[in-house]
Amino acid sequence: MTENDNKKNRSTLQIFGRVSGLGISFALIICVTAFLGYKADLFFSTEPILTCIGTIAGFLLALVSIYQIIKKDVL
Predict the structure, then answer these.
(1) Cα angle: 75, vertex 2, 5; to 5 degrees
(2) 74 close to 61: Cβ distance less than 8 angstroms
(3) InterPro entries recorded for this chain (predicted)?
(4) Which pTM was predicted?
(5) Less Cβ around it within 10 Å: N or C end of the chain?
(6) 75 residues of the chain, pLDDT tens digit each
(7) For residues 62-74, b (16+ Cβ closer than 10 Å) or e, as one string?
């Protein structure tokens, strides 16, 4: 293996690590906010309303978070 191949493999692994980290962050943020909405539904007896709001809020929060990470990484 040449040094150039070694650098290419290392950068591929770094990219894979970053992308998989973004996916995990995205899923974790949505799951946490949906869980909080579910618990709030149980507390306030408002069945699926707060779970849906929590899931949508988590999705939007995850998009903003990933945008900021990508913006910081690329620029």
Answers:
(1) 35
(2) no
(3) ATPase_put
(4) 0.81
(5) C
(6) 566 666 666 688 888 888 899 999 999 999 999 999 999 999 999 999 999 999 999 999 999 999 998 888 775
(7) beeeeeeeeeeee
